[in-house]
Amino acid sequence: MMTSTTPVKAEARNLSFFYNGGNNAVKNVSMPLYENKITALIGPSGCGKSTFLRCFNRMHDLYPGNKYEGQIIMHPDDTNILEKNVDPIEVRMRISMVFQKPNPFPKSIYENVAYGLRVRGEKNRRIVDDKVEEALKGAALWNEVKDRLQDLAFNLSGGQQQRLCIARALATDPEIMLFDEPTSALDPIATANIEELMSELRNKLTILVVTHNMQQAARVSDYTAYMYLGELIEHGETDRIFTRPTRKETEDYITGKFG
Amino acid sequence: MNTVTQVLNNSLTPQISDRLSKNFNRHLKERVIEFILMLAAFSAVLTTAAIMGILLYESYGFFEHVSIADFLTDTVWTPLFENPRYGILPLVSGTLTVTGVALLIAIPIGTISAIYLSEFASHRVRETVKPILELLAGVPTIVFGFFALLFITPLLQKIIPGLPTFNMLSSGIVIGIMIIPYIASLSEDAMRAVPMSMREGSYAMGATRFQTAIRVVTPAAISGIVAAYILGISRAIGETMVVAIAAGQQPNLTFNPMDAAATITAYIVQVAMGDLPHGSIGYQSIFAAGLVLMLMTLTLNIIGHITRKRYSERY
Ligand SMILES: Nc1ncnc2c1ncn2[C@@H]1O[C@H](COP(=O)(O)OP(=O)(O)OP(=O)(O)O)[C@@H](O)[C@H]1O
Ligand SMILES: [Mg+2]
Q: Is the complex ipTM higher than 0.90?
């Protein structure tokens, strides 16, 4: 089987998450992210997909009162990135994120992509130039913007903005990239572009993507996880999940009987 | 077709007219209320228009005696002397100097306070500090005037030997303190209006809180912050009591804050308190000065309004 030979990049171990106020949005989830693979996270609205995803870059630390339980182990160094003495900034440098709605900064296209390097203190103009170009190429945006790098990022179309956000996340060479419904705000063509891009990015890094769109999960992902009410119901190779799910709930959801 | 509607009309007429008359009564009542509300709202507009009208009318009388060129270029303002001179420049220089000092104080402190309150302070601190700031904005300006004259000036005289009792420096500093709450509070509003998703984008790139505040939130809120500055400037320009008390009363063409000088507003109170005959040129001169002041603040307010509008369209 594929699972036995593919190295694991990161894994959640008995991960639970509680929002400030006690809402237990993720319940005891254990799940691997295979290296250089795309794992899709599906499930009905409110089942905890975003909450789970945002544990991986400690996004919940930004708001007081949130609580993690369990572990997220990153390989090969076996760091538990949820541990108190692990700096969330270190985590975010290794694991980057693309949001549902494109959220470029009020800066030029160039400075948007250079942002991660700037906050890391990179001053060398040549290095920044090279990284920006490489990231924009990696995000399939270079040809469209190479003559207007100093333009304000807000002037790009929605799809271009989302690719800009991907370039921004790429520029710092992350090991894992998180996508939270990256195409839900985009038209079909822009969506196809992003999906193609994700497939290519797989060669460089490991991807966890939340999606509402079952076809998208089937098209782009290697593994699929189905969540329901904060619990992980089933996880496995995408082909198998979509053809022979072992759990009745998964089958109902995938076939549209539910959700 | 026609007959059908007629039949319908006939059969429905009693009820409809009934309903209509009720509607009419209700409408009348609403109309009256609406009219009263409108009157209240327009009273402010009317007052402003009336003030503008009087300013223009009296200034017109002034400019029948004094050429606009003299008014704008002469360097001496002595309308009440035997040989009167009517150059507004000394009053403008006084106003600008005091305002400049005030901004040197208020912009850095106000902006830093806003960044702190919006991006660093806990909910509890913010909810405590903001009302205090607003309280500071509510202190009567005459109190600030005496604060400048009786506390700040003696303090400054210890540091700067030879500083005259009346000087623009201490008024400027105190006006600066006075407008900090405006700048801080409005800038903070602008920064808080920056969507959380933008901050999250920055944190997700591994930025610290400070980097996020300076590199993302501040530029995103910049037009709101600039609007706050502009409103602060127009407050400083229009401020009267502090300068009337602490800056001196002599029009003086200088930009040195260590000098005593009069501002436009100080001149206006000074003359308005004396008993000048209506219609005399000295009397009219305060309207001309007032007109200049009004134009200065009006321009700033319009610029502030435009930047604010542009910024609110961004998201
Ligand atoms: N900040 C919060 N505080 C408290 N509860 C929250 C918060 N954000 C989300 N929740 C709750 O946590 C649960 C999971 O939410 P989450 O956003 O992870 O769902 P999701 O699967 O991503 O849904 P969707 O597909 O609609 O994005 C929901 O019940 C939601 O109401
Ligand atoms: Mg979600």
A: yes
